Amino acid sequence: MSAQAAGTIVVVEDDQHIADLVELYLREEGFRVIQAPDGQKGLDAVRDQDPRLVILDVGLPGTIDGLEVCRRLRAKDDLPVLMLTARDGEVDRVLGLELGADDYVTKPFSPRELVARVKAILRRVDGPPRDRPDIALVGGVEVDPGRREARVDGTVVPLATREFDLLQYLAENAGLALSRQQILDGVWGPDWYGDERTVDVHVRQLRKKLGDALPLATVWGVGYRLG
User: Fold this and answer.
1) Measuring CA to CA, which residue among 23, 147, 27, 162 is closest to residue 82?
2) CATH architecture of 8-126
């Protein structure tokens, strides 16, 4: 695949060695890569380059760290964000997910795993080709897979990429009590390595954003049921 064929990715990382390594592996997969060494330059690059995805280190220098960058990105659009965190950065991971990050990778990491995560996120964002995607109505929420929109009373409620994926999966299985592991396998994929608490974080975000319109119940000892 030729350079730029897969689109642009902005890598916001102050460690030059890591940034160069990530760029090398992404370019091998056909991505165009723009590096940014701090939060402000990362925001500028997103504004100027219209990337498909942002890889974002939490521990950036200066006054705008990775969490603040994620917060500002989420305030404007649903651009996919994959966060890089330190091995012991559980709090950072949870905060990043609550701010709308789509996935996270802990340092040190395998560059191949990172690229696989990037491609998995983009596959979910692009979705399978469907001529007439069905719009589901669950409670007071319209779930529109074609537009990747959640609407309440006709008003679009902005959701992060992974939040919408979770909502769509729950809507497709409305009425069923799903375990956290089932949800992880269905939304994050069976090859995803992470904690079941990730599901709880995203459920909290859906409840916060969609409110009483979303009939999402906790099934104690099992997981969650929509509808």
Assistant:
1) 162
2) 3-Layer(aba) Sandwich (3.40)
Q: What is the DSSP letter of 187?
A: I
Rg (CA), the chain: 17
Give the three-state DSSP class for 14. Answer: coil
Q: What's the pTM? A: 0.67
Pair 177, 219: CB distance under 8 Å: yes
Please give the distance of CA 129 from its chain centroid, rounded to a whole number: 20
The C-alpha atoms of residue 36 and residue 55 are separated, in whole angstroms, by: 10
For residues 150 and 143, is the Cβ–Cβ distance under 8 A? yes
Strand partners, 142: 137, 151
Contact call for residues 100 and 68 (beta carbons, < 8 A)? no
Q: Where are the domains of the chain?
A: 8-126, 136-226
Strand order in the sheet with 103-106: 32-36, 8-12, 53-57, 81-85, 103-106
| CATH match of 136-226 with 3.40.50.2300 | no
Cα-based torsion angle of the residue sequence 150, 213, 188, 116 in order, rounded to the nearest 10 degrees? 30
The residues facing 34 across adjacent strands are 10
Quick one: CA torsion of 92, 96, 101, 105, rounded to 10 degrees? Answer: 0
For residue 42, give every residue at least 6 positions away whose Cβ sits within 8 Å of its Cβ, in sequence order, or none.
10, 12, 36, 54, 56, 60, 69
pLDDT, tens digit, 9 for 90 and up, residues 28-77? 999 999 999 999 999 999 999 989 999 999 989 988 999 999 989 988 77
Q: Name the nearest CA neighbour of 31 among 114, 102, 94.
A: 114
8 A C-beta contact, residue 80 and residue 125: yes
